[in-house]
Amino acid sequence: MKIITDATHFASEGRSAVAIGKFDGVHRGHRKLLSDLMRSRDGLVKTVFTFEPSFASYFAGYPVPELSTKEEKRRLFEEMGIDLLIEFPVNDKTVSILPKDFITDILVKRLRAADIYAGSDLSFGFKGEGGLALMESLAVSGDFQVHLVPKLRFEGREISSTYVREAVKEGRMELASDLLGRPYTVVGMVQHGAHLGHDLGFPTLNLQPTPSKLLPPRGVYFSEVIWQGQLFYGMTNVGTNPTVNVGAQYSIETHVFDFDREIYGDPIEVRFLTFRREEQQFSSLQELTGALERDASAARAFFQERGDRRF
Questions:
Q1: pTM across the whole model
Q2: Which of 68, 120, 126, 246 is most buried (CB neighbours < 10 A)?
Q3: What does the alpha-carbon distance between residue 64 and residue 253 come to, in Å, rounded to a whole number?
């Protein structure tokens, strides 16, 4: 997959099929849109046109936590077979582009769009005033076709990034998985921690989340971990470990069952499956150890009920 980032002057190597959107989370609705894109006419450059940073972060002036980091979205797009990814820069100049100019100058002239795929809530150009109606009115003169991809629904509600964010913020990880079509995930490099978990009999793999990644509420979760393509099971604490680290910054610490390797500096993927309990401040290390033992026992029972033969 070719990536064009932080550039407004680019050209497609041939006529293209383009999917436009923010794609935060790359949820099931996004995947339906992208699947339709991948089934477009043979010979077209399958192109995703998205924006970096998000409009929310640009107008706020700081990174607003999102479901997917830029790197995570890139990986998902590549897995789906996208040929070209445009990460269009959002800045003082580009937010002033008139909607008609966005279509004629960028989609038609630069990307040579033959097919454009979008959802009904598409907005673009100055103040987000451009939408499907304008795009369809210019389709004939611009020699392209517009394909409206209907929204998917779950439990009576349209699947959207807002819906997924609500689920994650509430710690409803099963609902988030249903909306995304996969577990909610955090990816990062394993870092050194205080090594207290090892002393307690529960060594952990520690990640320092980026400010741009939305995290579920503080607490303990049952989780899956992917390391070097291998699947492991464990339990993950999101928070500050108040029993031993009062005032510490947020961290993601995962105890992986039956795992004794030192993998500092390696990338791992932590998948949140279900919420276990809120993070607590215990009165002693003994009380903390007892809670961890109960968490581990419940986690092993959870994975056993799911049918994993390792438990």
A1: 0.93
A2: 68
A3: 23
**230 φ, ψ to 5°?**
-100, 145
Of 124-128, 186-190, 279-283, the least confident: 279-283
Residue 117 DSSP class: E
Instruction: Classify the phi-psi angles of 23: left when phi > 0, otherwise alpha if psi is within -120 to 50, otherwise beta.
Output: left
For CA atoms 90, 93, 99, 101, give the dihedral sign: negative
Place of tokens 């899956």: 224
Q: 42-66, pLDDT tens digit by residue?
A: 999 999 999 999 999 999 998 899 9
The closest alpha carbon to 38, from 14, 17, 22, belongs to 17
- Among left, alpha and beta (phi > 0; psi -120 to 50; other), residue 52 is beta
Tokens found for residue 277: 């309990």
What is the Cα 12 distance to its own chain's centre? Answer: 27
Only one residue has tokens 């100019």, namely 101
Q: Is the dihedral of CA 150, 152, 156, 160 positive or negative?
A: negative
